[in-house]
Amino acid sequence: MRKILFILTLLTFGLCAAAFSDVIYLKSGGRVSGEIVNETEEEIKIETTIATITIMKDQIDEIEVEKGDEGAGQAEPEVVKPEIESKDTKELSFAEKIILARAPLKEKIHSLEQELETARASLPKEIEQAKAPLQEKIKSLEGELEKARVSVPKEIEQAKAPLQQEIDLLKKEREDLFAQQEKLSRELEKKTLALAEAYTPAVETPVAEAVEIDTEDAEAYYQQGLIYDKKAQYGQAIFYYTKALEIDPEYTIAYNNRGLAYRCRDQFDRAISNFNKAIEIDPNYAKAYNNRGVAYKSKGLYNQAIFDYTKALEIEPDYVDAYYNRGNAHCSKEQHYQAISDYNKAIEIDPAYVEAYFNKAIACDNVDRPKEALSTYRDFVQYASPDNHKSRIEYAKERIMILGN
Fold first, then answer.
1. Which of 22, 85, 345, 375 suits 96 as a labelling partner, its CA being 20 to 30 A distant?
2. Rounded Cα distance, 329 and 304, in Å
3. CB 78: neighbour CB atoms within 10 A?
4. What percent of the chain has pLDDT over 70?
5. Interhelix angle for 234-247 vs 252-264, to 10°?
6. Choice between 180 and 238, residue whose per-residue pLDDT is larger
7. Is the pLDDT reported for residue 82 higher than 90?
8. Pairs from 205-208 (Cβ < 8 Å, separation ≥ 24)
9. Beta bridge partners of residue 32, listed in sequence order
10. Using an 8 Å Cβ cutoff, are 219 and 239 in contact?
11. What is the pLDDT of residue 139?
12. What whole-number distance in Å separates Cα of residue 225 and Cα of residue 257?
Protein backbone atom coordinates (compact mmCIF):
# COMPACT_ATOMS: atom_id res chain seq x y z
CA MET A 1 0.00 0.00 0.00
CA ARG A 2 2.81 2.35 0.90
CA LYS A 3 4.57 1.55 -2.39
CA ILE A 4 1.44 2.31 -4.44
CA LEU A 5 0.95 5.54 -2.57
CA PHE A 6 4.62 6.44 -3.10
CA ILE A 7 4.39 5.79 -6.86
CA LEU A 8 1.20 7.89 -7.16
CA THR A 9 2.87 10.70 -5.25
CA LEU A 10 5.91 10.67 -7.52
CA LEU A 11 3.65 10.78 -10.59
CA THR A 12 1.70 13.71 -9.19
CA PHE A 13 4.93 15.48 -8.29
CA GLY A 14 6.26 14.99 -11.83
CA LEU A 15 3.14 16.45 -13.40
CA CYS A 16 3.16 19.43 -11.08
CA ALA A 17 6.83 20.07 -11.67
CA ALA A 18 6.27 20.02 -15.42
CA ALA A 19 3.40 22.46 -15.14
CA PHE A 20 5.43 24.69 -12.87
CA SER A 21 8.36 24.70 -15.30
CA ASP A 22 5.99 25.73 -18.11
CA VAL A 23 4.77 28.61 -16.00
CA ILE A 24 8.30 29.78 -15.30
CA TYR A 25 9.13 29.42 -18.97
CA LEU A 26 6.09 31.45 -20.01
CA LYS A 27 6.83 34.12 -17.46
CA SER A 28 10.29 34.54 -18.93
CA GLY A 29 8.81 35.01 -22.42
CA GLY A 30 9.48 31.47 -23.78
CA ARG A 31 7.67 29.52 -26.47
CA VAL A 32 5.46 26.46 -26.41
CA SER A 33 5.16 24.23 -29.53
CA GLY A 34 6.97 26.88 -31.51
CA GLU A 35 4.20 29.54 -30.98
CA ILE A 36 4.09 32.73 -28.92
CA VAL A 37 1.58 32.27 -26.10
CA ASN A 38 -0.71 35.24 -25.77
CA GLU A 39 -1.68 36.94 -22.54
CA THR A 40 -5.05 35.15 -22.18
CA GLU A 41 -3.52 31.69 -22.42
CA GLU A 42 -0.87 32.72 -19.90
CA GLU A 43 -3.53 33.78 -17.41
CA ILE A 44 -5.35 30.45 -17.89
CA LYS A 45 -2.15 28.52 -17.21
CA ILE A 46 -1.42 30.56 -14.09
CA GLU A 47 -4.86 29.84 -12.73
CA THR A 48 -4.46 26.13 -13.56
CA THR A 49 -1.06 26.07 -11.86
CA ILE A 50 -2.44 27.70 -8.70
CA ALA A 51 -5.18 25.07 -8.55
CA THR A 52 -2.62 22.30 -9.08
CA ILE A 53 -0.40 23.77 -6.34
CA THR A 54 -3.29 23.76 -3.95
CA ILE A 55 -4.08 20.11 -4.75
CA MET A 56 -0.41 19.16 -4.38
CA LYS A 57 -0.12 20.97 -1.06
CA ASP A 58 -3.08 19.02 0.24
CA GLN A 59 -1.56 15.73 -1.00
CA ILE A 60 1.79 16.51 0.62
CA ASP A 61 0.04 17.22 3.91
CA GLU A 62 -1.83 13.90 3.62
CA ILE A 63 1.39 12.01 2.89
CA GLU A 64 3.13 13.61 5.87
CA VAL A 65 0.23 12.67 8.11
CA GLU A 66 0.23 9.05 6.81
CA LYS A 67 4.01 8.80 7.04
CA GLY A 68 3.88 10.17 10.55
CA ASP A 69 1.30 7.52 11.51
CA GLU A 70 3.35 4.62 10.03
CA GLY A 71 6.74 5.66 11.35
CA ALA A 72 5.70 6.82 14.75
CA GLY A 73 8.51 6.88 17.20
CA GLN A 74 11.20 7.26 14.46
CA ALA A 75 12.79 10.70 14.46
CA GLU A 76 13.09 12.26 11.05
CA PRO A 77 16.65 13.50 10.57
CA GLU A 78 16.95 17.18 10.00
CA VAL A 79 18.16 17.86 6.48
CA VAL A 80 19.74 21.16 5.55
CA LYS A 81 18.52 22.49 2.24
CA PRO A 82 21.95 23.13 0.65
CA GLU A 83 22.95 19.54 1.35
CA ILE A 84 19.78 18.24 -0.23
CA GLU A 85 20.34 20.32 -3.33
CA SER A 86 23.92 19.04 -3.69
CA LYS A 87 22.84 15.40 -3.74
CA ASP A 88 21.94 13.42 -6.80
CA THR A 89 18.24 12.89 -7.27
CA LYS A 90 18.66 9.11 -7.01
CA GLU A 91 20.36 9.45 -3.62
CA LEU A 92 17.49 11.52 -2.07
CA SER A 93 15.17 9.93 0.45
CA PHE A 94 11.41 10.21 0.23
CA ALA A 95 11.29 12.99 2.84
CA GLU A 96 14.13 14.90 1.12
CA LYS A 97 12.31 14.74 -2.21
CA ILE A 98 9.19 16.12 -0.56
CA ILE A 99 11.16 18.98 1.02
CA LEU A 100 12.90 19.73 -2.25
CA ALA A 101 9.58 19.80 -4.18
CA ARG A 102 7.67 21.71 -1.54
CA ALA A 103 10.13 24.59 -1.11
CA PRO A 104 9.49 26.42 -4.44
CA LEU A 105 5.79 25.74 -4.17
CA LYS A 106 5.61 27.28 -0.70
CA GLU A 107 7.63 30.25 -1.90
CA LYS A 108 5.28 30.71 -4.85
CA ILE A 109 2.20 30.38 -2.60
CA HIS A 110 3.69 32.90 -0.17
CA SER A 111 4.40 35.32 -3.02
CA LEU A 112 0.86 34.98 -4.37
CA GLU A 113 -0.65 35.48 -0.91
CA GLN A 114 1.42 38.66 -0.46
CA GLU A 115 0.24 39.99 -3.83
CA LEU A 116 -3.34 39.18 -2.89
CA GLU A 117 -2.97 40.95 0.46
CA THR A 118 -1.39 43.97 -1.23
CA ALA A 119 -4.30 44.14 -3.69
CA ARG A 120 -6.82 43.88 -0.89
CA ALA A 121 -5.08 46.66 1.05
CA SER A 122 -4.74 49.02 -1.92
CA LEU A 123 -8.30 48.62 -3.26
CA PRO A 124 -10.09 50.71 -0.53
CA LYS A 125 -7.48 53.44 -0.93
CA GLU A 126 -8.06 53.56 -4.68
CA ILE A 127 -11.83 53.70 -4.09
CA GLU A 128 -11.43 56.56 -1.60
CA GLN A 129 -9.09 58.39 -4.00
CA ALA A 130 -11.69 58.03 -6.77
CA LYS A 131 -14.51 59.17 -4.45
CA ALA A 132 -12.70 62.30 -3.19
CA PRO A 133 -13.10 64.48 -6.33
CA LEU A 134 -16.72 63.33 -6.71
CA GLN A 135 -17.48 64.33 -3.12
CA GLU A 136 -15.90 67.74 -3.72
CA LYS A 137 -17.99 68.21 -6.87
CA ILE A 138 -21.18 67.23 -4.99
CA LYS A 139 -20.39 69.71 -2.20
CA SER A 140 -19.71 72.43 -4.76
CA LEU A 141 -23.03 71.80 -6.56
CA GLU A 142 -24.94 71.73 -3.27
CA GLY A 143 -23.38 75.08 -2.32
CA GLU A 144 -24.39 76.62 -5.65
CA LEU A 145 -27.93 75.24 -5.25
CA GLU A 146 -28.25 76.72 -1.76
CA LYS A 147 -27.02 80.09 -2.99
CA ALA A 148 -29.61 80.00 -5.76
CA ARG A 149 -32.37 79.14 -3.29
CA VAL A 150 -31.41 82.10 -1.12
CA SER A 151 -30.78 84.63 -3.88
CA VAL A 152 -33.89 84.00 -6.06
CA PRO A 153 -36.50 85.08 -3.42
CA LYS A 154 -34.38 88.15 -2.65
CA GLU A 155 -34.26 89.09 -6.33
CA ILE A 156 -38.03 88.64 -6.59
CA GLU A 157 -38.62 90.83 -3.53
CA GLN A 158 -36.22 93.47 -4.87
CA ALA A 159 -38.12 93.50 -8.16
CA LYS A 160 -41.51 93.67 -6.39
CA ALA A 161 -40.57 96.48 -3.98
CA PRO A 162 -40.65 99.41 -6.46
CA LEU A 163 -43.83 98.06 -8.09
CA GLN A 164 -45.54 97.76 -4.69
CA GLN A 165 -44.48 101.30 -3.80
CA GLU A 166 -45.97 102.58 -7.03
CA ILE A 167 -49.22 100.65 -6.40
CA ASP A 168 -49.46 102.03 -2.85
CA LEU A 169 -48.85 105.54 -4.13
CA LEU A 170 -51.58 105.21 -6.76
CA LYS A 171 -54.01 103.84 -4.17
CA LYS A 172 -53.30 106.77 -1.86
CA GLU A 173 -53.73 109.25 -4.71
CA ARG A 174 -57.03 107.59 -5.61
CA GLU A 175 -58.28 107.75 -2.01
CA ASP A 176 -57.24 111.38 -1.73
CA LEU A 177 -59.03 112.12 -4.98
CA PHE A 178 -62.24 110.48 -3.77
CA ALA A 179 -62.05 112.28 -0.42
CA GLN A 180 -61.56 115.59 -2.18
CA GLN A 181 -64.43 114.81 -4.51
CA GLU A 182 -66.76 113.98 -1.60
CA LYS A 183 -65.76 117.18 0.18
CA LEU A 184 -66.40 119.28 -2.90
CA SER A 185 -69.74 117.53 -3.46
CA ARG A 186 -70.86 118.33 0.08
CA GLU A 187 -69.78 121.94 -0.23
CA LEU A 188 -71.57 122.26 -3.56
CA GLU A 189 -74.72 120.70 -2.11
CA LYS A 190 -74.67 123.13 0.83
CA LYS A 191 -74.21 126.13 -1.44
CA THR A 192 -76.98 124.95 -3.76
CA LEU A 193 -79.38 124.49 -0.87
CA ALA A 194 -78.42 127.84 0.59
CA LEU A 195 -79.28 129.51 -2.71
CA ALA A 196 -82.54 127.58 -2.85
CA GLU A 197 -83.47 128.70 0.66
CA ALA A 198 -82.90 132.31 -0.31
CA TYR A 199 -85.67 132.06 -2.93
CA THR A 200 -87.97 129.45 -1.29
CA PRO A 201 -90.39 129.98 1.61
CA ALA A 202 -89.18 128.39 4.84
CA VAL A 203 -92.34 126.26 5.20
CA GLU A 204 -94.62 124.79 2.59
CA THR A 205 -98.10 126.36 2.94
CA PRO A 206 -100.23 123.19 3.33
CA VAL A 207 -98.06 121.74 6.10
CA ALA A 208 -97.60 125.11 7.77
CA GLU A 209 -101.33 125.54 7.89
CA ALA A 210 -101.75 122.04 9.33
CA VAL A 211 -99.25 122.83 12.08
CA GLU A 212 -100.99 126.07 12.87
CA ILE A 213 -104.42 124.39 12.91
CA ASP A 214 -103.61 121.28 14.95
CA THR A 215 -100.64 121.37 17.26
CA GLU A 216 -101.36 117.78 18.33
CA ASP A 217 -100.94 116.35 14.86
CA ALA A 218 -97.63 114.35 14.91
CA GLU A 219 -97.87 113.54 11.22
CA ALA A 220 -97.97 117.28 10.35
CA TYR A 221 -94.76 117.91 12.29
CA TYR A 222 -93.19 114.87 10.68
CA GLN A 223 -94.03 116.12 7.18
CA GLN A 224 -92.62 119.53 8.05
CA GLY A 225 -89.39 117.78 9.08
CA LEU A 226 -89.24 115.96 5.73
CA ILE A 227 -89.44 119.29 3.86
CA TYR A 228 -86.41 120.66 5.70
CA ASP A 229 -84.64 117.29 5.34
CA LYS A 230 -84.88 117.46 1.56
CA LYS A 231 -83.42 120.95 1.64
CA ALA A 232 -80.54 119.68 3.80
CA GLN A 233 -81.66 122.06 6.58
CA TYR A 234 -81.07 119.37 9.15
CA GLY A 235 -81.35 121.57 12.22
CA GLN A 236 -84.94 122.56 11.34
CA ALA A 237 -85.72 118.98 10.33
CA ILE A 238 -84.55 117.70 13.74
CA PHE A 239 -86.73 120.32 15.45
CA TYR A 240 -89.92 119.14 13.70
CA TYR A 241 -89.12 115.42 14.11
CA THR A 242 -88.69 116.10 17.82
CA LYS A 243 -92.05 117.89 17.95
CA ALA A 244 -93.68 114.88 16.29
CA LEU A 245 -92.08 112.51 18.84
CA GLU A 246 -93.27 114.65 21.74
CA ILE A 247 -96.81 114.02 20.52
CA ASP A 248 -96.22 110.32 19.61
CA PRO A 249 -93.26 108.72 21.47
CA GLU A 250 -93.74 105.45 19.49
CA TYR A 251 -93.35 107.12 16.11
CA THR A 252 -90.57 104.81 14.79
CA ILE A 253 -90.07 106.46 11.40
CA ALA A 254 -89.61 109.84 13.13
CA TYR A 255 -86.80 108.32 15.23
CA ASN A 256 -85.26 106.85 12.09
CA ASN A 257 -85.42 110.14 10.16
CA ARG A 258 -84.13 112.17 13.08
CA GLY A 259 -81.24 109.72 13.26
CA LEU A 260 -80.56 110.33 9.55
CA ALA A 261 -80.55 114.11 10.12
CA TYR A 262 -78.05 113.75 12.98
CA ARG A 263 -75.89 111.49 10.81
CA CYS A 264 -75.87 114.09 8.02
CA ARG A 265 -74.55 116.57 10.58
CA ASP A 266 -71.82 114.04 11.54
CA GLN A 267 -73.37 113.64 15.00
CA PHE A 268 -73.01 109.85 14.82
CA ASP A 269 -73.60 109.00 18.49
CA ARG A 270 -76.92 110.87 18.52
CA ALA A 271 -77.82 109.21 15.23
CA ILE A 272 -77.10 105.74 16.66
CA SER A 273 -79.19 106.55 19.74
CA ASN A 274 -82.21 107.38 17.55
CA PHE A 275 -81.77 104.22 15.44
CA ASN A 276 -81.55 102.19 18.66
CA LYS A 277 -84.89 103.65 19.78
CA ALA A 278 -86.51 102.84 16.44
CA ILE A 279 -85.24 99.21 16.63
CA GLU A 280 -86.39 98.95 20.25
CA ILE A 281 -89.93 99.88 19.20
CA ASP A 282 -89.84 97.73 16.03
CA PRO A 283 -87.19 94.93 16.06
CA ASN A 284 -87.98 94.13 12.41
CA TYR A 285 -87.26 97.66 11.17
CA ALA A 286 -84.71 96.78 8.46
CA LYS A 287 -84.03 100.40 7.45
CA ALA A 288 -83.10 101.34 11.03
CA TYR A 289 -80.52 98.50 11.08
CA ASN A 290 -79.13 99.62 7.73
CA ASN A 291 -78.92 103.27 8.80
CA ARG A 292 -77.30 102.41 12.11
CA GLY A 293 -74.76 100.33 10.16
CA VAL A 294 -73.88 103.39 8.08
CA ALA A 295 -73.36 105.42 11.28
CA TYR A 296 -71.12 102.70 12.73
CA LYS A 297 -69.07 102.59 9.51
CA SER A 298 -68.67 106.39 9.64
CA LYS A 299 -67.13 105.92 13.11
CA GLY A 300 -64.79 103.19 11.78
CA LEU A 301 -66.67 100.42 13.62
CA TYR A 302 -66.77 98.09 10.62
CA ASN A 303 -67.68 94.86 12.42
CA GLN A 304 -70.73 96.46 14.06
CA ALA A 305 -71.69 97.92 10.70
CA ILE A 306 -71.45 94.53 8.96
CA PHE A 307 -73.55 92.99 11.74
CA ASP A 308 -76.33 95.58 11.24
CA TYR A 309 -76.31 95.23 7.43
CA THR A 310 -76.57 91.46 7.79
CA LYS A 311 -79.45 91.84 10.25
CA ALA A 312 -81.27 94.11 7.79
CA LEU A 313 -80.80 91.48 5.04
CA GLU A 314 -82.17 88.76 7.28
CA ILE A 315 -85.36 90.84 7.61
CA GLU A 316 -85.43 91.95 3.94
CA PRO A 317 -83.37 89.57 1.72
CA ASP A 318 -83.66 91.89 -1.32
CA TYR A 319 -82.57 95.05 0.51
CA VAL A 320 -80.24 96.33 -2.20
CA ASP A 321 -78.77 99.23 -0.16
CA ALA A 322 -77.83 96.83 2.65
CA TYR A 323 -75.82 94.67 0.19
CA TYR A 324 -74.11 97.74 -1.22
CA ASN A 325 -73.31 99.18 2.22
CA ARG A 326 -72.01 95.85 3.51
CA GLY A 327 -69.76 95.65 0.46
CA ASN A 328 -68.36 99.08 1.37
CA ALA A 329 -67.68 97.93 4.94
CA HIS A 330 -65.84 94.84 3.66
CA CYS A 331 -63.74 97.06 1.39
CA SER A 332 -62.82 99.24 4.39
CA LYS A 333 -61.52 96.06 6.05
CA GLU A 334 -59.74 95.10 2.78
CA GLN A 335 -61.97 92.04 2.51
CA HIS A 336 -62.32 92.59 -1.21
CA TYR A 337 -63.62 89.16 -2.20
CA GLN A 338 -66.55 89.46 0.25
CA ALA A 339 -67.14 92.99 -1.01
CA ILE A 340 -67.29 91.80 -4.65
CA SER A 341 -69.86 89.19 -3.65
CA ASP A 342 -72.07 91.85 -2.01
CA TYR A 343 -71.74 94.24 -4.97
CA ASN A 344 -72.71 91.40 -7.33
CA LYS A 345 -75.84 90.77 -5.28
CA ALA A 346 -76.76 94.46 -5.33
CA ILE A 347 -76.30 94.58 -9.12
CA GLU A 348 -78.35 91.40 -9.50
CA ILE A 349 -81.26 93.05 -7.64
CA ASP A 350 -80.78 96.44 -9.36
CA PRO A 351 -78.84 96.18 -12.66
CA ALA A 352 -78.65 100.00 -12.86
CA TYR A 353 -77.02 100.46 -9.43
CA VAL A 354 -74.23 102.75 -10.66
CA GLU A 355 -72.25 103.06 -7.40
CA ALA A 356 -72.17 99.26 -7.01
CA TYR A 357 -70.51 98.91 -10.44
CA PHE A 358 -67.82 101.47 -9.64
CA ASN A 359 -66.97 100.10 -6.19
CA LYS A 360 -66.94 96.53 -7.50
CA ALA A 361 -64.46 97.53 -10.22
CA ILE A 362 -62.19 99.10 -7.58
CA ALA A 363 -62.38 95.90 -5.50
CA CYS A 364 -61.50 93.77 -8.56
CA ASP A 365 -58.48 96.00 -9.16
CA ASN A 366 -57.37 95.42 -5.57
CA VAL A 367 -57.42 91.62 -5.91
CA ASP A 368 -55.82 91.59 -9.37
CA ARG A 369 -58.82 90.43 -11.39
CA PRO A 370 -58.19 92.60 -14.49
CA LYS A 371 -60.77 91.04 -16.82
CA GLU A 372 -63.60 91.42 -14.32
CA ALA A 373 -62.45 94.95 -13.43
CA LEU A 374 -62.40 95.94 -17.12
CA SER A 375 -65.91 94.59 -17.70
CA THR A 376 -67.26 96.33 -14.57
CA TYR A 377 -65.69 99.71 -15.43
CA ARG A 378 -67.39 99.48 -18.83
CA ASP A 379 -70.74 98.75 -17.16
CA PHE A 380 -70.25 101.73 -14.87
CA VAL A 381 -69.55 104.09 -17.79
CA GLN A 382 -72.67 102.76 -19.52
CA TYR A 383 -74.99 103.50 -16.57
CA ALA A 384 -73.30 106.54 -14.96
CA SER A 385 -74.63 110.06 -15.46
CA PRO A 386 -72.02 112.59 -16.69
CA ASP A 387 -73.66 115.28 -14.55
CA ASN A 388 -73.39 113.31 -11.28
CA HIS A 389 -70.32 111.12 -11.81
CA LYS A 390 -68.01 113.15 -14.04
CA SER A 391 -64.71 112.52 -12.20
CA ARG A 392 -65.47 108.83 -11.67
CA ILE A 393 -66.32 108.39 -15.34
CA GLU A 394 -62.97 109.92 -16.28
CA TYR A 395 -61.15 107.61 -13.86
CA ALA A 396 -63.06 104.58 -15.18
CA LYS A 397 -62.12 105.44 -18.78
CA GLU A 398 -58.44 105.68 -17.81
CA ARG A 399 -58.61 102.24 -16.20
CA ILE A 400 -60.37 100.84 -19.29
CA MET A 401 -57.53 102.06 -21.51
CA ILE A 402 -54.89 100.53 -19.19
CA LEU A 403 -56.67 97.21 -18.66
CA GLY A 404 -57.69 96.90 -22.29
CA ASN A 405 -54.11 96.97 -23.57
1. 22
2. 10
3. 5
4. 64
5. 160
6. 238
7. no
8. none
9. 35
10. no
11. 82
12. 9
Residue type, 293: G
Specify the DSSP element, H or E, that contains 376.
helix 370-383
Beta carbons within 8 Å of 285's beta carbon, 6+ residues apart: 252, 256, 278, 279, 315
Q: How confident is the model at residue 141 (pLDDT cuts 50, 70, 90)?
A: confident
* Burial grade of 247 (CB within 10 A; 0-12, 13-18, 19 or more): middle
- The pLDDT of 90-96, averaged and rounded, is 67
Task: Give the closest residue to 259 by CA, choosing from 207, 311, 294, 210.
Answer: 294
The CATH classification of domain 177-404, taken from the options 1.25.40.10, 1.10.287.1260, 3.30.1960.10, 3.40.50.720: 1.25.40.10
Domain ranges of the chain: 2-70+79-134, 177-404
Residue count of the chain: 405
Alpha-carbon distance of 219 to 225, in angstroms, equals 10
The per-residue pLDDT for 32 is 44
